[in-house]
Design brief:
single chain
Length: 98
């Protein structure tokens, strides 16, 4: 299953992940250099927040692109129609980010 079929959503998700990667690199460099605790923790919080936002963006996109049912019980569609998620599966993924 693809993360999203919407090119704009995919671009936004990738931008968030790349931003998080850059922030994580800054954290690693700060720790290696014996950086200030406040700076390291602030950067870690930024990385965590960026990853959370990327995860929520993926789930949001999946709710538009991958949901297969409207009643909430849901079943998976056949593989030849693409791996789609039921609302129950989306909820489980969403809650795993909490």
């Amino acid at each position: 299953m693809s993360t999203t079929t919407d090119p704009d959503a995919q671009r936004r998700i990738l931008n968030r992940l790349k931003r998080a990667r850059g922030q994580l690199t800054a954290v690693i460099e700060a720790v290696e250099a014996g950086g200030d605790c406040r700076t390291v923790v602030t950067q870690l919080a930024a990385v965590s927040s960026a990853l959370d936002r990327a995860g929520f963006a993926v789930i949001s996109s999946a709710m538009r692109d991958c949901a297969t049912d409207t009643a909430g019980g849901g079943t998976r569609q056949a593989a030849d129609e693409g791996e789609r998620l039921s609302f129950d599966e989306l909820e489980k993924l969403f809650l795993s980010l909490a």
